[in-house]
Specification:
It is globular, with a radius of gyration of 17 Å. It is built from 9 helices and no strands. It has one domain. The longest helix has 32 residues. Helix 1 packs across helix 4 and helix 1 packs antiparallel against helix 8. With 179 residues, the chain is mainly alpha-helical.
Length: 179
């Protein structure tokens, strides 16, 4: 692989990962507050499946998005032209997320068809989780599409990098304080 091939992949992966991290943390914080995850995850029927919000693993959860982001970006990269060369490519990308990652992942995840069928989680838990996941992936798809259309545009990249950096520091600082 020559440098002409590596450089576009690297930028693609970095931009996707930054936007995935930002949208994951922002929507996670919004819905954690709105749905009171601290109390929700302590309910007996939920606690058998979800860790409490005070768990070090939950606090570290956003950092794992720095692994998931590149994995997803590399999976999407071969299809970038179909997505980025289409005026509504962000809707195509969101459709992929909805179909493959939300409704039909390979496991019995909350909000998925398999999760509804095979997990012991109540139906209401699957349904209240959908808005967070749908909105986060919608924002991810749209912001990524816009940034990929203009990767050198400072009005897009600088605010996203600043928000990413601030959120990353907040997550790391929270972990340090929790340890």
């Amino acid at each position: 692989m020559d440098t002409m091939t590596v450089k576009p992949i690297f930028g693609f992966v970095i931009r996707f990962t930054i936007i995935h991290f930002v949208t994951y943390v922002v929507f996670g914080l919004i819905f954690m507050t709105l749905l009171n995850y601290h109390v929700l995850y302590m309910l007996p029927e939920i606690a058998i499946f979800m860790r409490p919000t005070t768990s070090i693993w939950v606090l570290a959860g956003p950092l794992f998005q720095l692994i998931r982001g590149p994995i997803m970006a590399l999976a999407i990269y071969p299809f970038r032209k179909v997505i980025l060369d289409n005026r509504r490519g962000w809707i195509l990308l969101w459709g992929l997320f909805v179909a493959l990652a939300i409704l039909s992942p390979a496991g019995a995840a909350p909000c998925s068809i398999e999760g509804i069928v095979y997990s012991v989680l109540p139906l209401w838990f699957h349904l209240i989780g959908l808005p967070e996941i749908l909105l986060q992936t919608l924002a991810l798809s749209f912001l990524f599409y816009v940034w990929e259309q203009n990767p050198e545009e400072k009005k897009i990249s600088i605010p996203l990098i600043i928000v990413f950096s601030v959120l990353l520091v907040m997550v790391v600082w929270g972990l340090i304080l929790a340890i």
